[in-house]
């Protein structure tokens, strides 16, 4: 597939692009800074709607000129570009950039007739991650039906983006899938970051004790590219196990004693349910911190 990928210069985007290339997709990275990846790139301000639709409707690389058949259409758009969290700049600017860029990207894609759009939403939509103090889930494991009532500008922007995606899907009929991505972990971060998580599980409370390996995130994007006909969907994206070494029963006893349990859970099962992604798009995460730390 010919894929228009925004935000490929970021942490998650680099891994996703490499994985998509390994699967044979032709990827254009669209970002404000170069990625250093071996792929075609355009430097674009995604908050400018003219630049977005211009980038999406022009040649991406010199080899496309040789075909002599005009500008080829993209088969899919993957939108990862965003201010990645609160407390980088002002709250208002985080909200503005994230919502404006997403509107521009999805609007351009649907107007150009691109049939598949995948965008990065977030675990933060559930209101736990960036809460002032402690906010507990309404129930565990947390699935896509859990209420999304965030208190911070980043998560607010992601909830707005989900509404934007749903609205454009209703108008256009395109497949538009939102990925509620959990804490992205690169392979080398298992050795550097996870010993502290294992020593003090409370440090993972804001991430609902979950994580997503960057390689498995790339796999999830590819699963979505290969699955047609689902209309508008949101998916939790996490690995199968928790990011702590204590059992699910211990996590519940220490951190969720009064939180209802929706169904029986395996001893090391993630509290950030990924069942829907497995069922609908064939998501099958392969990695775990246990490969490195035992």
UniProtKB/TrEMBL annotation:
Gene3D superfamilies: NAD(P)-binding Rossmann-like Domain (3.40.50.720). InterPro entries: Epimerase_deHydtase (IPR001509), NAD(P)-bd_dom_sf (IPR036291). Transmembrane segments: none annotated. It comes from the Bacteria. Residues 5-200 form the NAD-dependent epimerase/dehydratase domain. This is NAD-dependent epimerase/dehydratase family protein. The lineage of its organism: Bacteria, Pseudomonadati, Pseudomonadota, Alphaproteobacteria, Rhodobacterales.
